[in-house]
Specification:
Elements lengths: L1 H38 L1 H5 L1 E3 L2 E2 H36 L1
Helix pairs in contact: 1-3
Length: 90
Amino acid sequence: MESHEVKLRALARRRFRLSLTLTATMIAVYFGFVLLIAFDKTLMAWEVVPGLTVGILAGALVIVASWLLTLYYVRWTNVHYDQALKDLTQ
């Protein structure tokens, strides 16, 4: 019984560390974007192609980054966490 609880707590710690890491990554991406807007307007106004600035592209990449981090978390939980939890409850 004790071993089961230890394994369950270890699994919960792994999930918490992953979610904390992904959250910190998203915060860094978002605030990096905001800081670029605040302190490097010239860069953000630079046109990559007519009608598309670095700022618009960076904003779109922030959204894509959030999707990718969410996809990674969902995939990790489906592949690793759910299986490990299932193994512990059997």
